[in-house]
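User: My instructor asked us to take a sequence, write out its structure as tokens, and then describe one feature of it. I'm not sure where to start. Here is the sequence I was given:
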Amino acid sequence: MDKVTILSYDQIYKNFIDEKYLNGESEFRFRDKQVKKPENGWRHLRSDEVERLVKNSNTAANWDEILVTDEFDTRLVKNNRFFGLVRIGRIKYEMLQYHDLKVPVGITDSSIISCDIGDDVAIHDVHYLAHYIIGDRCILFNIHEMTTTDHSKFGNGVIKEGEDEEVRVWIELMNEAGGRKVLPFDGMITADAYLWAKYADDERLQKRLFDITQAGIDKRRGYYGTIGESVVIKNSWILKDAKVGPCAYIKGANKLKNVTINSSEEEPTQIGEGVILVNGITGYGCRIFYSVVATRFVLGDNCNLKYGARLIYSVLGDNSTISCCEVLNNLIFPSHEQHHNNSFLISACVMGQSNMAAGATLGSNHNSRATDGEIVANRGFWPGLCVSIKHSSKFASFTLLSKADYPYELNIRLPFTLVNNNASTNELEIMPAFWWMYNMYAIARNSSKYQKRDIRKRKIQNIEFETFAPDTMEETIEARKLLEAWTGKAYLIRENKFDASMDIKELRQAGKKVLKDKELAKSLTVFGEGMENSKRKVRILKHYEAYHAYGDMITYYAVKNIIRYLEDNPGTTVMEMCHELESVRQREWINLGGQLINGDDLENIISDIDNERLNTWDEIHHRYDEIWKRYPMEKLRHAYLSLLFLHKGETETMTKELWFNTLDKAAEIQKYISDQVFISRKKDYDNPYRNATFRNEAEKTAVIGKIDEVSFVKQIRKETEEFLDKINNIKNTVSFN
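Assistant: Let's start with the prediction itself. The structure tokens for your sequence are:
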């Protein structure tokens, strides 16, 4: 219907569901199941109550269809129009207060069509309220339109009886061409979205996930919109097919259409002025304010959208914040930060703990020829100010891009790396292990920062917050291999011993020997390969320092996990632990929406979905949780085997000498971390240009404090003392044999 038509007067409340979809059932078949019935039920109005309601300028299409409870004060119901079956809970002479807003319980100046209204509700100036179930103690104040259709889906990507496939809502993730589209559903987490979008080539998996999602939502028509208990909605324009959870606060919203707003008393969601949300689902505890527009989206728990952000065709993971910018066709894992007005993120899979700087322009056909390119960035991705990169590009964990316009596609395979486009030499410069060597404050603070920001009460998406984990350490191991090969090649070329037929093992063997000799290694100019789609050189900076920094990271990762295990299992000897951990190192780790799982477990999940052993999203989530429970032990095993790999060639198993040398090395590394955290932070305090803005030292101290009082500097010093004490305790109390 696309034009205004004339209907009989009673059609305003009749035929909510077309008879052909009822199959002989009542049109209230779902409404009666959805509503919470009063303890003593409803009753019809008495004749004197009808008379008083009429005197209060109320009208009804049929007063017999207005049902109330025993506590019903007619004085508080004024100037309303009622249509169809309206059931009203307790109305007493009381006030409701939320912040500075105080309104009387009751219903005034509103048009209400076929609704159920809970106890102690305040409905004032709601111009059109149709087919909603309102929970207890709600405030609905100054709302223009609030209605539910018979085919409401509340943001889920399903279709109802009689609907064309064309109306189904898909979210086209990671790729503008739609080749990785998924169906949103209430309860979707980033692990689900990645499983669905990434393995697009598995046709059986794609069909099964489609069927599981469609089967998870009743396709029959007639569900009412619901407003949970203690919800406040004020000064808003349109809510259509919106399902709102308890304790949500909505003020000044422009349009909420086909959405589920998850909220609870512990994790209330808030939506503010000028917001438009269409075809989407928000998680619990979200805050969405100030002219945000989001369409075809899923938000995780504890997310923030604000200051005019545009989120379209995207899934945003838990604990993330996006403001001011444009984000299209993305899958973003938990703990993503994007705060600036002029950043632009298109067709990317960003795997969390990431930060987008101002002016960053990532992806889209604005800087590529085609619309089907992609960007994949592992954990810790940080493009700097005014960065521009092209599709298709891929980045290892904790890649930092310096300010530049990168003219070619990139595949950065070295983690913790600084990337720079040196226009003066026309070279791409790569400094591996940059964070470890030059900004320890940031990398050491990373894990605790994201853990503190994780205020979720219900943790459905499992998240690995540790910087050093199986995924990043596997990248680190592979990075050491690449540095060995590239260093070996540089040495052999200089010595006129290089042969193009040499394989990677020969190059690595040569490079490994060179990297043991500091002077020899540092005398070489090393170039990387396979990291930029161009013929220009890719210069590796500080290859010697980076190689050994990577080794320190692996040692530190291993010892931290071993210490944790020995503390949790008192009386265990070192050799008993080693025997338990002996295995083949698992080299394939997948970041599944923030949760790390090994390749075998992922294959089993896919197989069990394909073969109908996992048949609902709840069952799939339960499998994630089962794997997560095993993860600490798998992580420990990986850490131990990574340590042995580091010393491969010297020993194949743990020896007493290696054990004590490793503990001593870990103690040195922890002291280095503590010192570097202080040094990294002290650079800001000693910078003469920063100091130039202060009249004297006293003013500087009053504004930014003393470096020794920086909370994280104090925290890392305390952690260092505790770590060293643990190592000494293990040396003295844990038996090797």
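For the description part of your assignment, you could build on this observation: Residues 181 and 546 are 40 Å apart (CA to CA). Try explaining in your own words what that tells you about the chain.
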